[in-house]
Amino acid sequence: MDFGFFNFGYTVSGFLVGLLVGVTGVGGGSLMTPLLVFLFGFKPSVAVGTDLLFAAITKTSGVWVHHGKHGSVDWRIVGWLASGSLPMAGITLYVIKHLMSVGKEITGAITFTLGIALLLTALSLIVRSVLIRRSEKLGIIKDEESTEDNSGRFKKMQIPATILIGAVLGVLVTLTSVGAGALGTVALLYLYPRMSTLKIVGTDLAHAIPLTTVAGIGHLSLGNVDVVLLVSLLTGSLPGIWIGSHLSAKIPERFLRPTLATILLLIGVKFVTA
To answer: What is the pLDDT of residue 194?
Structure first.
């Protein structure tokens, strides 16, 4: 049912994805974009563009909580990531615009890259738990009030390594809307093994906002955003995330993450082989 700026089916989908995001902590892009393509039949470019603006809006409230309440954002690392991701997002958008202007079909490239990103996300869900266990063995107290060592794995090469990771995320997120959450978190866990999980999540979330905003506005300028879809998804997802975050403590993670990883793996394979 379509009510002007609302579509009931989209709103329900937004609620279900928001619920899963709240329960699992996995970024909405890895769930929302495949849903829009396979269930509602949107072109991959429109699904990606709409989801990027959707992510930029929904992640903003999360950063205020992490920065204001927990103080769990390392803004230096956010700056290093952004110095790699934002220029690459701009370059990627320019390439997409050029290909569109000369009549090149970009759907296949976006679909294939989306499949690769989903496969990497599925793998990251498994790797993430391993990296967290390793960091806990280093004797870190997982408490937002603890004094922790945020030194990186690569020492003198730490800043270039962080900028490089940001650049890779900039391309992936702009092309697929996937990666700012799950892949960014895993990358930071590897780069900064002594940083608390809370700070990893807060820092990754803070970096995702400018990246998804720049990429989303770029796709909007290319005509790849459906406004009715965006408003409908937001209407459903915000309460879904709130309910899911309260349910998360009651559902064992050892069951949730492998199940979700398997689903994303299957979807990723379908995109790659499409």
So the answer is: 82
| DSSP assignment of the chain | -EETTEEHHHHHHHHHHHHHHHHH---THHHHHHHHHHTS---HHHHHHHHHHHHHHHHHHHHHIIIIII----HHHHHHHHHHHHHHHHHHHHHHHHHHHTT---HHHHHHHHHHHHHHHHHHHHHHHHHHHHHHHTT----TTS------SSGGGHHHHHHHHHHHHHHHHHHHS-STTHHHHHHHHHH-TTS-HHHHHHHHHHHHHHHHHHHHHHHHHTT---HHHHHHHHHHHHHHHHHHHHHGGGS-HHHHHHHHHHHHHHHHHHHHT-
Domain span at residue 199 reads 2-272
pTM for the full predicted model: 0.82
pLDDT at res. 160: 95
Number of domains present in the structure of the chain: 1
Q: What are the C-alpha distances in Å from 138 to residues 142, 143, 154, 193?
A: 11, 14, 17, 9
- Given a cut of 70, the residues of the chain with pLDDT beneath it are 1-6, 24-27, 61-71, 132-152, 245, 248-256, 274
For the chain, the distance separating the N- and C-terminal CA atoms, rounded to the nearest angstrom, is 30
**Which residue, among 1, 4, 87, 32, has the nearest Cα to 237 in the 3D structure?**
32
